[in-house]
## 1
Amino acid sequence: MSSSIVTVRTIADLRGHVTGWKRDGESVGVVPTMGALHAGHLALVEAAKQRCDRVIVTLFVNPKQFERADDLAAYPRTEEADRQRLAPYGPDVLYAPTGETMYPQSFATTISVGGVSEGLCGAHRPGHFDGVATVVTKLFMQTQADVAFFGEKDYQQLQVIRRMTSDLDIPVEIVGVPTVREADGLALSSRNAYLTAAERGVAPALNRALCRVAEGLVEGQPASKLTADAIEEIRGAGFRDVDYVEVREAGTLRPIERLEGEARVLGAAWLGKARLIDNVPAFPRAAAGGNG
Ligand code: AMP
């Protein structure tokens, strides 16, 4: 068990490590996070450790991807606990830059990805994916990573990052890691900490409803009917509002009505103070396989 995670806060210090590794021909993986680490994040670190010689975990609560000041202020910040949680997984560096390092006063650039950023969470969180694309581009440039690891839990985000990396010819490979769940199906999320005990009991209803949509699609039912039923089911379970439940083609995120190739069923809904998101795959019968 390693407990020697080096914490760096400046680009110069980070580059010092990375330059040495690259000189020695070592591959570099990066796992971007906003902290409040749980087993979902740690699965990304494990995947990175398996794949790369060196692993950087980044910790930065990115103000540009919060569209509400109260949400940003309330976001959990637990750096010391995060460092302890990471230790057994042995990343080489925890890169936790300051706000001033990431966005100095003069900062004036926004990366905006069309197509896959539109609809779903993009429609409900204006500016969110611009904030994500901008910070992830900076983290790629700063870390010079060869491989970057992202969770399928944030499926639209993963597709936005794939599109952006390809469009901008950034020399980094993007790896998606399946969603880590509680035993009752609830996707692990830093935002689950906002749930009361009663809400925690209700929360798995989101995943159950999405799985039911996926099953219906495989049986040949139309997406519009299945998603309308799912929204009713999620509301009936005790969620206070449903932002969306939709069926999209897995790679392009184009809306689809019938299952032809690989699809994703995606949903977002409000439970008390928490906005929960989740998604599950749907494969036509002949091509069945995988889980998300
Ligand atoms: P966050 O700290 O919420 O920005 O998440 C950092 C990374 O962890 C993102 O790539 C997320 O998709 C990923 N992640 C969050 N929750 C999970 C989960 N339950 N399973 C797998 N990956 C996750």
## 2
Amino acid sequence: MNKQELITWLRETDSSALETLWERADETRKANVGDEVHLRGLIEISNYCCRLCGYCGLRAGNKGIERYRMSSDEILACAHQAVEFGYGTVVMQAGEDYGIETQWLGDVVRAIKRETPLAVTLSLGERPDEDLIAWREAGANRYLLRFETSDSELYDLIHPAHGSRVSDRIAMLKRLRELGYEAGSGVMVGIPGQTYENLADDILTFASLDLDMIGIGPYLSHPETPLGQAQWVRQIEPADQVPDTEVMTYKAVALTRLMCPQANIPSTTALATINKAQGRELGLMRGANIVMPNLTPTKYRALYEIYPAKACVDETAAQCRGCLHARIHSIGRTVGHGPGGRKRN
Ligand code: SAH
């Protein structure tokens, strides 16, 4: 599909046309990555952050939240729980927190690799090259870093630079690949100032980077952020603004599956947040093949508030596991075994 075709689909509102899109995405998913849904246990290891991303509740400027950083023993306990629950991967995610020291995290990764068969995914922001090298040497397998938007003007507006360092997430994704990581990225749907053309370019960028993992969720406004304030505007034609809706997110997920048939695509927590009853399932039925159950200890969960009213904040890890198994089986899919890495023909 070219850009114009993508834009036409993104603007499509006819429900029978959209049914065809969902079916095509589901068939493509089944033919390329099968019926197994892989579970990635998410451990939100710290909510400290030195960055000022315009949309994120963890931003350094938000003085209203209590900050935490998990200990290595707490993280290892979560990893062992992941094994008990039958998950093949743990994802350690955090704000960009330099209190997470290079050596310390390397030791945590090494301990997980020594004590468990898990694949290890990191999602720790724009860390310098030496950190990425050290963690890869320690055994980390994958890294998630959403580029959030392929429009450089919008990107710069919502990602203030960190000191003198240039923020270039696309370059970092390429570097992660060179270092032998599986590289994951993604975007939010409906960021204020995001146009249909921007979102079509995002999907083309996923394909051109040949990403291994692609996470797409709706933008959810957080009141303690600049983008959550009424006065924040990027001047675009109102008719060009992508709405931050559930259906627009499914369109982006389905089109991404068609453009990147073999990628691992999660049905995201943000999607589950805007439709708590069915968002996860509908994502899985419209292109996605991955779910990320939360393993973060309950006492920290509510503090990892990237956006408000996040799904599953009150549940224990065991409840998340039970709930997701039931949801996966209810739509005739199976739970995947093993690390569930990127398939390549
Ligand atoms: N510090 C890490 C992890 C960020 S949280 C990093 O920078 O990569 C993971 C993802 O949550 C972000 O990449 C972003 O796409 C999403 N996110 C953050 N704030 C959000 C919001 N208000 N609404 C929806 N998604 C949000």
